[in-house]
Amino acid sequence: MQPSIGIIGGSGLYSMLENATEVEVETRYGKPSDKISIGTLAGVTVAFLPRHAKKHTIPPHKVPFRANIEAMHKLGVKRIIATNAVGSLKPDYKPGEVAFFDQFVNMTYGREETFFDESEVVHVSSAEPYCPQMRAVAYKCANEAGIPAHESGTVVVINGPRFSTKAESRTFSSQGHHMINMTQYPEIMLAKERQMCYLGIALITDYDAGLEGRSDIKPVTNAEVIKIFGENVGKAKRIITDVVKGLPSHRACKCANSLDGALMTQK
Predict the structure, then answer these.
(1) Residues 110, 112, 117, 121: is their CA dihedral positive or negative?
(2) Distance from C-alpha of 144 to C-alpha of 105, rounded to nearest angstrom
(3) Is 41 among the domain residues?
(4) What are phi and psi of 176, to 5 degrees?
(5) Least buried of 7, 13, 171, 243, by fewest C-beta within 10 Å?
(6) Which CATH number goes with the domain that contains 73?
(7) What is the pTM of this model?
(8) Closest listed residue to residue 84, CA positions, set 148, 11, 19
(9) Residue 18: C-alpha distances to residues 26, 41, 44, 141, 246 (Å)
């Protein structure tokens, strides 16, 4: 069967699917990060793609975002569930908790960020980038599972692969943003350009460069990220499985119409 749901994530999620087979998908934008596994989860046919490749060999600024989303699109995927390790910029967004993005702030550069850069000019609205229907289902699932979760949150997307300076982290926090990550953009907007629904699940691993006035909270280290992310994998699996089971077949959102009125080029 054709997968209607695609999962983009990292290590620890590969074993979720039953009866999985791997497929190679070629796109006009090159190959995706790795082979895509197609199998069943909670009785639903889904596709899984490791964003950084199976052995985590692709750094955030070199992820082939266009190829990844285009490959999912070619397979027939209509909804994306994506997991992301994030740093917290706020004391109440604690390591070990999860959050569901509703806004992003793009601070990346040099990335191929649109499918419409050749013969057509298309201005896609990004006022509400994330699917509200999927986010509501995910938050309900987290609550029912007893997983500490935030229903919304703004993520600042930096280029990476380095972590933030204290000055950068202080700036982002003072602007009211909640989390920081290296891969949410342009992935989210490419999915929107392909009229897909997108759920971003944030797995909070650290407090970025520390918190102002808190000497007990130290800047993030890669070892700490790996440790807390590993502890969060079980929560991510539970939420993803419950979301796949709980999503209604009908997309009661505007995601499928994200290109309506967006074309500027005259036919």
Answers:
(1) negative
(2) 30
(3) yes
(4) 95, 5
(5) 171
(6) 3.40.50.1580
(7) 0.93
(8) 11
(9) 24, 6, 10, 21, 18
- CB contact at 8 A, 142 and 152: no
Q: Is residue 166 part of a domain?
A: yes
Distance CA 37, CA 14 (A): 8
Residue 232's SS3 state is helix
As annotated, the active-site residues are: 206, 208
pLDDT digits (tens, 9 = 90+) for 196-213: 999 999 999 888 866 656
Residue 62 is part of which domain span? 5-257
pLDDT in tens, 121-149: 999 999 999 999 999 999 999 999 999 99
Number of domains in the chain: 1
> Is there a domain that residue 245 lies in?
yes
Instruction: Decide: 187 and 111 in contact? Cβ < 8 Å.
Output: no
Q: How many residues does the chain have?
A: 267
Q: At what angle do helices 184-193 and 65-74 cross, to 10 degrees?
A: 30
On whether residue 100 sits in a domain, the answer given is: yes
